[in-house]
Write a structure and sequence with these properties.
Blueprint (H helix, E strand, L loop, with lengths): L2 H14 L2 E5 L13 E5 L5 E3 L1 E2 L2 E2 L3 H9 L2 H9 L18 H4 L20 E4 L5 H9 L7 H13 L4 E5 L3 E10 L8 E9 L8 H15 L4 E4 L6 H9 L16
Parallel strand pairs: 9-10
Antiparallel strand pairs: 1-2, 2-3, 4-5, 6-7, 7-8, 8-9
Helix pairs in contact: 1-2, 5-6
Length: 260
Amino acid sequence: MSDRTEADALRELATNRGCKLVRSRRRTPGRGDYGRYGLKDARTGKPVLGIGKGGLTATAEQIESFLRSGAAAGWKHSLGATPKRKREPEAKSTPEPARERSKKPVKASAAEEEPSEPPEPKIRDARPGDAEALARLIRGLGYELTAADAKKRLTAMRRAREAVIVAEAGGVVGAASLHVTSVLHRPKPVGRITMMVVDENCRGRGIGTLLVAEAEARLKARGCGLIEVTSNRKRLRAHHFYEGLSYERTSYRFTKDLDG
């Protein structure tokens, strides 16, 4: 398939999913974001996938996988705030009966008042008392974990100086675990964000960005010269999130189950 045919096919697929395809303008192989693509929301113009600070980052395969998996529809749904209700036409005023005018106005109850802004998230070290919340968050990623297991593992990680941090905002709403590895082939240790998760009901509030910033600061303080992030290849929205924070896809990750 030629580059033009490939781009046309992706553009049509993106249009059908409510997105707009952006293609690199570089025409010289090996220069900048040559051969890369990105997606924007067709209505708002907001970046959806593969648009980083340094240019476009997604391959044609990543764009096609994102659009065909239905993730685009999920992203589009998450962009939409609650639609504004149409203003009902005002009814013509009629004189109130005398006995109705004599009643005192009733104050709105606290439940009818405007909802308050959610509290600002604070990042801190995880504690044993966070085990239940940590287990709940991690189960949301698809891993089986009980509060007892979470507490046991947290204790072991703290002994090994492997940090676990949480975002607290009226409760634990996000978490990340960190690891430092000394390697022969680099002059400085390599830091790794081994897991990060934000409560599904609290996403879009910058909590993930705060967790990553804290992770970067802590790993740098421990002498790391590079930070790696592991993310399952099916978590396309997570890939877009990290790309938006200037992380780049640099390698493949291979695993082998030794218990299977």
